[in-house]
Design brief:
This protein has 106 residues and is mainly α. The protein contains 6 helices and no strands. The longest helix has 17 residues, at 20-36. It is globular.
């Protein structure tokens, strides 16, 4: 997924005019790919770009919460899990974010 999202971000001429929701999703996928490759700083960078592009992206908030939890930034992770829960209309994201929140607030 990193190579595909990198190509979209770096080479696609139309990226600047792409609707924000699509850009946000591409940044989200790209950031999650970095997380899966244990590159947490880059993951945080792209997931933050996702949220800056679409401040209601439950998926990006959830993924960023996971990164924050992994890097032991627990207070920030709780904040992001809360936002993911607040913005989620997808039951899967809502459930995962709720589980992450519960794990950190026991």
């Amino acid at each position: 997924s990193l190579s595909i999202s990198s190509q979209l971000i770096n080479e696609w001429d139309g990226f600047e005019t792409t609707p924000d929701e699509i850009k946000s999703s591409i940044y989200d996928v790209h950031g999650w790919g970095y997380y899966l490759n244990n590159q947490y700083d880059k993951a945080e960078e792209y997931l933050t770009k996702s949220i800056e592009t679409n401040s209601f992206s439950a998926s990006a908030f959830y993924h960023l919460a996971v990164v924050m939890e992994k890097t032991e930034n627990y207070k920030t992770a709780i904040d992001y899990y809360t936002k993911a829960i607040d913005y989620a209309f997808d039951e899967e994201i809502s459930n995962k974010a709720n589980q992450g929140y519960q794990n950190l607030t026991k």
